[in-house]
Write a structure and sequence with these properties.
Blueprint: E1 2-14, E2 17-20, E3 38-47, E4 58-59, E5 65-69, H1 79-83, H2 87-94, E6 98-103, H3 106-118, E7 123-127, H4 131-136, H5 141-144, H6 147-160, E8 163-166, H7 171-175, E9 181-184, H8 197-200, E10 210-215, H9 225-232, E11 240-245, H10 250-259, E12 266-270, H11 276-284, E13 287-290, H12 299-306, E14 311-314, E15 328-329, H13 334-346, H14 352-362, H15 367-384
Helix pairs in contact: 3-6, 9-13, 12-14
Amino acid sequence: MNIAYIHDHKYFRRNGKVYSAGTMSKEVFSRFWGIASKITVFAYIIDAGDGLSIKSMTEIDDPRINFVGLNDARLGIILKDRLLLKQAILSNILSHDGVVARLPGALSSRYCSYLMKNTGIPIGLEVVGCTFDALWHHGSMKVKLVAIPSYLLMKGVVKRSEAVVYVTESFLQSRYPTRGKSINASNVAIGEVVGDERWRMRKRSSGKSLKLGIVGSWDVKYKGHDVLMKSLSRLPKEKFHLEIVGSGDTDYIRSLISAGGLDENVTVVGRLRPGKEMLAWFDSLNLLVHPSKQEGLPRTVIEAMSRGCPVLASSIAGIPELLPERRLHPPGDHNMLRLQLLEFLDNSEFFNEDIAMNIERSKDYLFSVLENRRIEFWRNFFQRS
């Protein structure tokens, strides 16, 4: 069986090899190997010139996975690539036995909508976030204008789908209900969790500042970097140091840091490789802060929890499924986040109870638990189809 996998993800190509800058590694497709012999990924493909570093990217080196660009790689991604369906792409998709699409994604939703209305090819979905939240909090008024149409399009596609895997337990199910079969299975794959003794030994040394961390691209404005900077700007500078992991417009993130008078308190780490590099970084933190204004169920939060790391986060989307209310703040509320951070800086030992609680909750997202659930779901769907 050959499966077409559609997703508005950016992959990078150099010398015939394909790389992912995010978490869309070859392991993401492992859930389909009990069903499919080949997978064709339809996504954005960007030619990586010599000026673009691929050092922190992950190579997709499985010969069973092929890539087809939704765009012309030589031109990058232009407006028509995001809006117009291509007959050659549709014909290619229809040469497969079935389709799995990962939403949200403007072009993924449009291709799915067309295929559902005009063909009989089996289509299943992975719903990993809310397109309305992503576009509404993007930071651009032009992008905001398409939030409602995009939401309605995605809602219609999910409703008509025969099979849906949601990453949340309830949030995305209520916002994007389906008439088809569905399960919840996070796209986060935790290989293991750690014991909490290490964290209980990590007490605050006298006069030593605490290490805070935030993860997320700052090319988009909904990850909450601005919220965190406003909160930190009003806290005692000697008590903390922040590390920022991610990528994006350096001028933008530097302007936020400078505006808050935080130049001496913040280090921009840049991009880290998924897996060992990220986990080692979580292990080095005293606290992860995740003030995002748009999410599905954030990998960052679950991975930090699996390492016994305390977390403060916004109450958006599926995050309340992970953390207690006392560790949440309304999206964009920098005043409440400031108070929570102040409590942590002054009394970090109060967060000791979070260590065991976070580790225990993260066990629900172990790879061994979720992968079997996903494999069985997709096997049943494609066998019925």
